[in-house]
Amino acid sequence: MGDTGITTLLRCLLVVLAVVDAAGTDYLAKENGGWHVSPSPSPSSAPSPSQKHPCLDNSPNMTENTGGEAGEVVHDYGGLEAYVTGSRHAGCCVILVSDYYGFRAPRLRQIADKVAYSGYYVVVPDLLYGDPYTDDPARPFWLWIMTHSPVEAAEKTKPLIAALKKDGMSFVGVGGYCWGGKVAVELSKTEETQAVVVSHPSLVVVHDMNEVKRPIEILGGESDTISPPLLVHQFEQALDQNKRVDHFVKIFPKAPHGFACRYNASDPFAVKTAEEARADMIKWFDKYLKQH
Ligand SMILES: *[C@@H]1O[C@H](CO)[C@@H](O)[C@H](O)[C@H]1NC(C)=O
Ligand SMILES: *[C@@H]1O[C@H](CO)[C@@H](O)[C@H](O)[C@H]1NC(C)=O
């Protein structure tokens, strides 16, 4: 690493240290094309010190039995390890991008299988390169996130999309959860994908919406403190101004951050909400990926 690299890294570190408070209520946002950690936008909605960061709340049970996986893991698809499920002859593909906990989460794979059942080849790439966030106290979230840029992850997804197109997938959509939502938004600024769906995003800022070029659906939660309804409405207003793209924005009542992929499976209301979010995502992809 050159002098400039080290200087930049140190500067980032200082910015991060300066704004992460002791309770760990760090919030991340984009600035000048990069991204950084900033304090909670709304102290009243911030979690109390005893609570975890909402992005890390209700972490997935990695050994949960969701009834078996229909797909398999491939070790190199466009340079990425990935869980793939559904028919390779589908002609249209959905890439699902994980939250901080990565592509191994059983519930995420279950969602992938269900999307595949709707007629898609579904790919869940490991854009965290075998290094998902784990609740390891020796490696706090703010330190971990510094080496997991969603903007870089979007770049790494491009060779995967190229490989999928080579394999006959004429239409490629991207669905992202939390961190993956930012990856999806970055890809919606390019010509790489036909449509994107973003569920309870983190790291996405209003300015991103000015650059969106592809039809975008944003699913927010009424009780989400990371992308609260106020912010999601600002996304919608920016998209209204951005005449290039069709968009659909919805706020799910009483839904916390993570409601689409990390819901409480013993809570019927949470299950129903997650199912509705999945159905809305599939509807959006059906509209733009299944042309006839
Ligand atoms: C995780 O899933 C496994 C297998 O279904 C189960 O035995 C275990 O109790 C679950 N853990 C938690 C914390 O729910
Ligand atoms: C999940 O939902 C059940 C049923 O509503 C509730 O009893 C339980 O406390 C919830 N678990 C968590 C971790 O919120």
From TrEMBL:
InterPro entries: AB_hydrolase_fold, Dienelactn_hydro. Residues 34-70 are annotated as: Disordered. Residues 81-289 form the Dienelactone hydrolase domain. Keywords: Signal. GO terms for molecular function: hydrolase activity. Residues 1-22 form the signal peptide. This is Dienelactone hydrolase domain-containing protein. It comes from Oryza meyeriana var. granulata.
